[in-house]
Request: fold
Amino acid sequence: VTHVADARTSVLHPASHTHRQLSEEQLIEAGVRPDLIRFSVGIENIEDIIQDIDQALNR
Reply:
């Protein structure tokens, strides 16, 4: 579960996660596009974050 005050890095898809209860029209009104990704950088070692991103993108 991702929390706003979390100190860990997280990536999520708001349309299917935090805003999943909204209709398509409500998503558009809220500015939550279907291709929107929320990326919150935490306090982990930056090299670990970069390595994790690289690994995820190269799968």
The longest strand covers residues 10-12.
